[in-house]
Every structure is written in C-alpha cells, then in structure tokens.
C-alpha cells in the first residue's frame, strides 16, 4: 500500500491557529524588520510545532531581502491617469528605499493575473494593483487565489479603485463623482444627456455611470433622457462614441465621458463632425488630468487627487510609520483591524466646454 502524501501546512493555517495575521506569523518564524513580542512569538512557534509546519523557502527569501520590491500593475502606462498615480506611488517607494517594477495590462484581466503571478515568482514583497476591477467571477476567483498565496508567505498587496476583492484599497468616489456631474448639468438647464462609457465589465465604468443615472432619476426625469454609448475605455473609444452619437442624430445637449481620455477623443470627433462645443453640445470628462485645462475649449472634468491616491496606496502596501505602529502585544495596529479603505473625494470642475444649453 502506497502512503498518501502529507498535505502541506501553510503559514496562513499557522497564523489562524495562533490567532494572528499571516504577516505577524511570518515575522515570528522567519524574522523581519519589525519586532514581535515574546509572548506572541511563543504562541506562533507553538502553533507551528503542533501543526508540523515546514517553513517555505520562498517565504524566508521574502522576509530576508535587504531591499523591498513592489510590483505595480496598471492598465495602461501611457494613460495620463495611470502615469499620475504611478508618480505619486513611486515618490513614496523612493522614500522607503523600495524598488518598483511596472506592468501594463492594457485592460486584460488575464494579463493582470499573469503579472501578479510573475511578481510573486520574482519574490516581490508587495503588489499594488492600480485601475478598475473586473466584475467577471472567473477573474475574481483567479486573482483572489494569487493574492492569497502571496499573503500566505508574508507578502502584502493593495488596490487603487474598486476590485471587489479583500485587501487595503484607495477608492476614488466614482459614483458620487458621476452623480455630481449630473447635478451640475441639471443646474445649468440640461435635460437630454449622452454618456460615452467604457465596457460595463469594468467596475469604474459601472460606478460612474450608475452615479450619473441615479442623479437623473432623482431629478424626476425619465430614463430615456440618458443615452449611453459603450465603447473602448480609451481615446479611440471616445472618438467612436461621439461619431456614433452624431450619426444617430444628436439629440442630447450635454455629453458626459466617463474618463478624460475618452473626452479628448470625443472632442476631436465632434470638431471633425462640425459640432461646436459648448454651443451645440456641452462636454465634461472625469479624472481632471492636467491637459484638460489646456484644450480648446478648456474642458470640464471631475477632479481626483491622482498623485495623492498613488502616494496613499503605496503607504498602505509598504506600511506608513505614522499609522503602522506596533501594538502592545507586538502585532501591528493596522493588522488588527479590517482591511483599510481610504476614500478620495471627486470634485466637479466646470470650464469653457460646459455651459447652459442653447436653443436649436
């Protein structure tokens, strides 16, 4: 009779048995930069012995690396939205003496998972995922498995924007921003709207459109007052959406683009079609990347502190000395609570591209 292989005990199981976080269990067993109290260390060691835990060489390598490395995964490195967030994140990484490896997925959920897996195999201590999440259940299951394996060997991770996954996250107020756009346009007198949206499987798109539509509903207007056109979440997508609206007989007096790059594409297409902004159609984007104020006309948007979002996300994933103090029992304060959610407000900034509707 052949003996069945013994199931490998994970660090997460040891941590659960000792009543601590995986990161604390890793420090207690393998060492690290932060000190674990004697009582807590004894509890973890006792649990490891009881479960016959065998230390993982990969986990030890993570704990003993002299210089931290962070794998930063984003949708598109050429997009000013992601460039601004990355700049803020890398400022904090440099202050911590950490190295940052970049990965651009071009909004492919499969490629995002591949990058996380690759950064894990390269023993990055932390992984930061920047950009919209995907609502696909298969993606969520696969990404959750990758991140939990990273966590189980003492790695850390965090998100910028919604990912519908457990973990620390910086969350721009996308739904509230979309609602604020609708209310601003309503106050100007608009009653017929078009929305240039990206794929609805992206949670950022879903939340921004939902916020906009909910504010229109609250104003008592019929759902037919909003015409949503779904295209790529890109400059070309904005161009295609604007062309489709004009070809279909433009009825709206205001166009809301769910990102600034889509608004830039839409502005180009409207100019090509002879549609005057804002005389024929008011236009507003979302994110307020720096170029928006320099377009002709200067284009309205929803302002987010993009660099601030990047800085805060990197603080979450590396640990901010001002908020990651050690507790009396040796465990860190941040690990003793639920995953942290840092919300960033969204503020409508009206410029020359948005005005009261004119009679046509």
Please give a structural write-up.
- The chain is of the alpha/beta class and 360 residues long.
- The protein has three domains: 11-61, Orthogonal Bundle (434 Repressor (Amino-terminal Domain)); 67-170 and 305-343, Rossmann fold (3-Layer(aba) Sandwich), CATH 3.40.50.2300; 174-304, Rossmann fold.
- It has helices spanning 11-18, 22-30, 38-51, 57-64, 80-95, 109-121, 137-152, 174-188, 203-218, 235-247, 260-272, 306-318; strands spanning 69-74, 99-104, 126-130, 156-160, 168-172, 193-197, 226-230, 254-257, 282-284, 301-303, 341-344, 347-349.
- The strands form three sheets. The protein has a six-stranded parallel β-sheet, sandwiched between helices. A four-stranded parallel β-sheet has the order 7-6-8-9, sandwiched between helices. A two-stranded antiparallel sheet has the order 10-12.
- Helix 11 (260-272) links the parallel strand 8 (254-257) and strand 9 (282-284).
- The longest helix has 16 residues, at 80-95.
- The protein is elongated and about 80 Å long.
- Mean pLDDT is 86; it is low at 1-6 and 321-337.
Short note summarizing the structure:
The protein is of the alpha/beta class and 360 residues long. The protein has helices spanning 11-18, 22-30, 38-51, 57-64, 80-95, 109-121, 137-152, 174-188, 203-218, 235-247, 260-272, 306-318, and strands at 69-74, 99-104, 126-130, 156-160, 168-172, 193-197, 226-230, 254-257, 282-284, 301-303, 341-344, 347-349. It folds into three domains: 11-61, 434 Repressor (Amino-terminal Domain) (Orthogonal Bundle), CATH 1.10.260; 67-170 and 305-343, Response regulator (Rossmann fold); 174-304, 3-Layer(aba) Sandwich (Rossmann fold), CATH 3.40.50.
């Amino acid at each position: 009779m052949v003996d069945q292989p013994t199931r490998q005990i994970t660090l997460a199981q040891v941590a659960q048995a000792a009543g601590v976080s995986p990161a604390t269990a890793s420090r207690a067993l393998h060492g690290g930069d932060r000190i674990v109290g004697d009582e807590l260390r004894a509890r973890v060691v006792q649990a490891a012995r009881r479960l016959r835990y065998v230390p993982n060489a990969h986990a030890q390598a993570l704990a003993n690396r002299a210089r931290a490395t962070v794998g930063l995964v984003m949708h598109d490195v050429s997009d000013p939205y992601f460039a601004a967030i990355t700049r803020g994140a890398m400022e904090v990484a440099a202050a911590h003496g950490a190295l940052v490896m970049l990965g651009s997925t071009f909004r492919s959920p499969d490629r995002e998972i591949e990058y996380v897996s690759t950064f894990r195999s390269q023993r990055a201590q932390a992984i930061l995922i920047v950009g919209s999440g995907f609502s696909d259940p298969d993606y969520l299951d696969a990404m959750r498995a990758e991140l939990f394996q990273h966590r189980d060997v003492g790695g850390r991770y965090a998100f910028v924007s919604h990912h519908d996954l457990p973990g620390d996250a910086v969350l721009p107020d996308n739904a509230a921003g979309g609602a604020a756009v609708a209310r601003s346009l309503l106050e100007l007198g608009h009653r017929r709207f078009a929305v240039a949206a990206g794929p609805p499987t992206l949670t950022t798109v879903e939340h921004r459109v939902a916020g906009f539509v909910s504010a229109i509903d609250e104003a008592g207007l019929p759902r037919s007052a909003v015409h949503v056109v779904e295209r790529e979440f890109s400059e070309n997508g904005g161009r295609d959406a604007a062309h489709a609206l004009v070809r279909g007989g433009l009825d709206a007096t205001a166009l809301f683009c769910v990102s600034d790059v889509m608004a830039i594409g839409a502005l180009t297409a409207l100019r090509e079609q002879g549609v005057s902004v804002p005389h024929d159609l008011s236009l507003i984007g979302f994110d307020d990347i720096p170029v928006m104020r320099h377009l002709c006309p200067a284009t309205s948007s929803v302002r987010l502190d993009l660099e601030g979002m990047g800085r805060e996300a990197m603080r979450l994933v590396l640990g901010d000395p001002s908020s990651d103090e050690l507790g009396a029992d040796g465990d860190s304060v941040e690990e003793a609570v639920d995953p942290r959610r840092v919300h960033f407000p969204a503020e409508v900034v009206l410029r020359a591209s948005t005005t009261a509707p004119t009679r046509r």
